[in-house]
Amino acid sequence: MTMADSQIRDHDLHHPAGAQAGAGNDAVTVRDVDFYFGSGDSARRVLHNINLRILRGQIVIMTGPSGSGKTTMLTLIGALRSLQQGSIRCFDTELRGLSLEQQVGVRRNIGFIFQSHNLFESLTARQNVHMALELRTLPEADKHRLADRVLGELGLAERLDYRPGRLSGGQRQRVAIARAVVNTPPLILADEPTAALDKDSGREVIDLLRRLADEQRCTIIIVTHDSRIMDAADRIINLTDGRISSDLDVRRTLYICQFIKQCPVFKDMLLNDLTDVAQHMELQSFAAGSEIIRQGDAGDRFHLIYRGTATVSVRQNGASREVATLNSGDFFGELALLRDEPRNATVSAATDVETFSLSKGQFLAAVRDHKSFEEQMANTMFSRRA
Ligand SMILES: Nc1ncnc2c1ncn2[C@@H]1O[C@H](COP(=O)(O)OP(=O)(O)OP(=O)(O)O)[C@@H](O)[C@H]1O
Ligand SMILES: [Mg+2]
Is the model's pTM score more than 0.85? Predict the structure, then answer.
């Protein structure tokens, strides 16, 4: 996962690409969902208190061990299964309590990419995709063009007139994907869409999904174990034993990792550990003119500036002297935490400032887990005086 600095900075980290928080921007909202297979004594709980809010235009990757409930979750969101407890809102429709007929109506607005392709064996690739356009009031010629274009984008331009029997597993998978996305549905649910594909075709599929999210604001939920496609996600949700065990905002995490690894304390940490630290950081806002930390106070948090400018000043013999200016990507506050000493300077917000900050407890836990405390201290003292 690499991204140029500027690219990360340019994105609004509160609201990932194409998605803005607020009314009308929610695609899927899951509240307090439990799910059981079987009934009575043999009932098995496979989902535990799932809460999730997915914004329009987001690509969410759901991962987790086999049997953790990913497909079950996807089928509930897609109205392929009835909810037992809790609520799921899909755009403006509450799924709880829908009749079977109403469920079918909801499914019309969803593009499904599931493992069993269900292609029509007697129809060509083009005709299979064309089927999905039946309900659209478009001239036939436009439908053909649309079907051909999507198949072309998925590398099947040479296979338009082939029937599934003459296509490889990966090619069939791509026809199924073309069929699911040709209508640019507002929601696309995909279960292991790249499992049968080689690297290049997998990339084509992901690029297409990314374009649909960015240009059409399609919301896309992908269940996958394929680490090659993680970089396309806005969010990575991990499900373990039917529970959400982590929920990661990818751009925010990359932003944080990229800058905190310049702090000596975090310098040698592996991406995995850095990601852990990033997940514990909270966004805090400070109005222009306010103090973020004050000289003499006990240290309680480590800060990384996300937006705005702050000034560092030191008070000595009754006079205050400005010693540095900090901007996006700069961090401060680790020394007092490491030494357990009062703050040696005041950092004030010169403009409105937002920081990602880590509590002292989390900071010290991360440091101790990683390396000997003395080693950290030595590193830090050596490379930083402020
Ligand atoms: N129709 C069913 N009847 C009973 N139990 C089921 C049914 N479908 C799934 N389960 C069980 O529910 C749990 C969650 O299954 P699910 O298919 O959602 O897992 P998954 O995360 O998609 O796994 P995988 O990565 O293997 O596809 C598993 O323990 C599974 O055995
Ligand atoms: Mg599954």
Answer: no
pLDDT tens digits, one per residue of 302-332: 999 999 999 999 999 989 999 999 999 999 9
Residue of minimum CA distance from atom 10 in ligand 1: 37
- The binding-site residues of ligand 1, defined as CB within 6 angstroms of any ligand atom, are 37, 46, 64, 66-72
Q: Tell how far the Cα of 191 is from the centroid of ligand 1, in angstroms.
A: 13
Q: Which of 47, 61, 68 to mutate to test the pocket of ligand 1 (most atoms within 8 A of CB)?
A: 68
Nearest CA-CA partner of 226 in 187, 199, 257: 199
For residue range 221-280, list pLDDT tens digits in order.
999 988 888 888 999 999 999 999 988 898 898 899 999 988 888 888 887 788 888 989
Distance, CA 70 to ligand 1 centroid (Å)? 8
**Which of 72, 75, 81, 238 is the pocket-test mutation for ligand 1 (most atoms within 8 Å of CB)?**
72
State the distance from the centre of ligand 1 to the C-alpha of 46, rounded, in angstroms. 8
Question: Which residue, judged by its Cα, is nearest atom 6 of ligand 1?
Answer: 37
Domains of the chain in sequence order: 5-248 (3.40.50.300), 261-383 (2.60.120.10)
For residue 363, CA distances in Å to 46, 357, 360, 381 come to 34, 10, 5, 17
Q: Give the Å distance between the CA of 192 and the centre of ligand 2.
A: 8
